Amino acid sequence: MAPAPTSTYSSITLSVNGDKHTLTVDHRTTLLDALRERLDLTGTKKGCDQGQCGACTVLLDGRRTVACLQLAVAAEGRAITTIEGLAEGEQLHPAQQAFLDLDGYQCGYCTPGQICSAVAMIEEHAAGWPSAVTDDVRPEAGPPPLTADEIRERMSGNLCRCGAYVSIVQAVARAAAVRAETTATAHTTHTTMTTQTQGAA
Amino acid sequence: MKEFGYQRVFDVSGALALLDADPDARFLGGGTNLVDLMKAGVERPARLVDVRELPLDRIEPTADGGLRIGATVTNSDLAAHPEVRRRYPALAQAVLAGASGQLRNMATVGGNLLQRTRCGYFTDVTRPCNKRTPGSGCPAVEGEHRNHAILGASGHCVAVHPSDMAVALTAFDAVVSYETTDGPGALPLSEFYLPVGGTPHLETALPQGALITGVTLPPAPIAAVSRYRKVRERASYAFAIGSVAAALDVRDGVIQDARLAFGAVASRPWRARSAERTLTGARADGETFAAAADAELAAAKPLPHNGYKVTLMRNLVVAVLTELSEEAAR
């Protein structure tokens, strides 16, 4: 049977930073090119364009992904978050603030990818995921502390040709610490409220 | 890149029908290898059938105490799964040793098994390559082959299989399940990858148009004490130049049972059965470990520039087995 003729382009709706965008794409279009060339979201950078440098890292359904190997048409229906979507109004994301405060960059080209990667990596670690440098991966061993070695391994998909790695590791550690404090505070507040509710009952 | 059609499928029969109707169609999983090869012009599909939303994304215990891993489970979810980490720690370690956090989030188990070699001649369409263009020749035999095969290669192709995950799966006797329009089938991983011989372009025993649906790990109490160790040219985010997946069952200083597989030394994950035979019943000491490595590597046929791999693998086997025997003694 001869294959049915097939269209080489599609009309798709992408959900980016909470906004829906409908566009017609040639199937060859990567998510990276769609973001930069079609939606004018140029924060996501094109480095190697072959999945080796991490400059184009964005979040798909909260998970870090390289946009250069992700076809735009295959990203339909997923929640895409780019560097432009991390801040809340004028309030920078703690990871963005940490990179600024600790000089986690030199030229800045890899920085959006580094920050998106770090944000998702911190969540992966908080969920208890081991890494290639984790001594004992068995769940009984508990989650590994987020040491500098762990950060370097978990961030190895993001290259920095300026070599700003020393401050990048510090910035990621700071961002993780802020997240842990925020979670602890939220937990304390929650506990207090629960106690009060129980007291009232 | 050549233009192509795209369809997303939500059930296995729909996926099979689309591939059956179009021999130039390919299944798209995470795309980390296929999209890259399409950019390079190595793969030129007429149509992509996106299988990522097939209901094959679960890891479930089997009745006999093994695990069944769905084909669209991501590498990240596989490595993070508590039962994988508890029962087959070397498998979690192998997956974590591969690629980067971003790529592991995208890559699927089925796609990982079917990924192609990173031989520089295969990925460069301006060069001959028997795997890409049968009969065109293999420049690697006399060219750049520092990271090529020392075991099981032929004069037609000396490329190595790049997967870390598949090495651990091979050590633990995993079985690949697939579906075709004629019904389901299964292949032990030891038979899944074909020997190179004179047909390096034929890489697996999967029937034409088949869809991998999952991988089943049989129960293996021995795997609870297992390790994967990978040597590469930088500390992270690089393909192996040699790797070992191993499990050891030691009682009273004597090896009761052993599992050993090598990566980055052959066109497929290399189950080291000669080494396993040497280990079983012998004392768990450095002399035995070296003898086991030598038994396997006796068949090695290094090329002019990759002889270092024989030494590297010998040392790696001894190191990993030593670590495991110390762990077993604790």
From TrEMBL, chain A:
PROSITE patterns: 2FE2S_FER_1, 2FE2S_FER_2. SUPFAM superfamilies: 2Fe-2S ferredoxin-like, CO dehydrogenase ISP C-domain like. Transmembrane segments: none annotated. It comes from the Bacteria. CDD domains: fer2. Keywords: Iron, Metal-binding, Oxidoreductase. This is Oxidoreductase. It comes from Streptomyces hiroshimensis.
Automatic annotation (TrEMBL), chain B:
Residues 1-222 form the FAD-binding PCMH-type domain. Keywords: Oxidoreductase. Coiled coil: none annotated. InterPro entries: CO_DH_flav_C, CO_DH_flav_C_dom_sf, Diverse_Substr_Oxidored, FAD-bd_PCMH, FAD-bd_PCMH-like_sf, FAD-bd_PCMH_sub1, FAD-bd_PCMH_sub2, Mopterin_DH_FAD-bd. Gene3D superfamilies: 3.30.465.10, CO dehydrogenase flavoprotein, C-terminal domain, Uridine Diphospho-n-acetylenolpyruvylglucosamine Reductase, domain 2. Pfam families: CO_deh_flav_C, FAD_binding_5. This is Oxidoreductase. It comes from Streptomyces hiroshimensis.
